[in-house]
């Protein structure tokens, strides 16, 4: 795939872990200001003291709604876990925090596990719970009444994510499948600056997650023209991950974590998008609840949150084929499934509910 540096040096990320970690957090805490706390009477799983888990989320997005539901409804607290949360603004930074030991669990793209494994370092990270089963980004164009066709992207510019990231690779994969030619994919804008660049007139299209897609549409700045999740199909976009050493040392924490998130996902199935929006709104301060509810509905319609949180061998194969297509790994650098995926905790959680 053009536009991706085939010799991307992940050892550089590892060598500069300390710097990555310093810029990783944006100050988000496990309980957002004004967020509802656990239900009355909720304590630890055994009624004792809770254990603090340092957690790094890749970005703040409604794409990860089950996580915020688990926080707001006290499902982590019920398991005896207190979540100390920061936002890393990138899977590479979230992975760096794990390797540096400044995060215990990160929500990141599983592709980072492949990159790190191929560096043959002292530590590896493993995906133990798949939170999302499709890409969560949407393609937003300039406001128009014309129906969208993929060929409209021929020769156009698209603000996307950094090279080697899941959304960027999924976009390029879809563009190739749809026969789009000559599109310029812009990958050198920081995530927090992408929307501002689009607002200022840069790019014909932008690839963003919810609630930003709905927000741009409501404000008349853009129009959602396509779902990359629907266009790209099954794809293990994000998973909870930890170092193999942490998983071995704290299997009880990993199991409790899986239980809390699975409980939140099931809770969402029996509540309306508006009810979910009421619960997670404090984590999206300044975003109207109707936009949050619309975002939830969009994600539910494309079956974002899988019933089975196990990252399967088939999905992992899809991921590695996309990485090869993107040029971030070579065909002879495919990683063994069991080397970077841990299934027993998610299997026990889903099988025991």
UniProtKB/TrEMBL annotation:
<dbReference type="Pfam" id="PF09084">
    <property type="entry name" value="NMT1"/>
</dbReference>
<feature type="domain" description="SsuA/THI5-like">
    <location>
        <begin position="65"/>
        <end position="271"/>
    </location>
</feature>
<protein>
    <submittedName>
        <fullName>ABC transporter substrate-binding protein</fullName>
    </submittedName>
</protein>
<comment type="similarity">
    <text>Belongs to the bacterial solute-binding protein SsuA/TauA family.</text>
</comment>
<dbReference type="GO" id="GO:0042597">
    <property type="term" value="C:periplasmic space"/>
</dbReference>
<feature type="signal peptide">
    <location>
        <begin position="1"/>
        <end position="34"/>
    </location>
</feature>
<keyword id="KW-0732">Signal</keyword>
<dbReference type="InterPro" id="IPR015168">
    <property type="entry name" value="SsuA/THI5"/>
</dbReference>
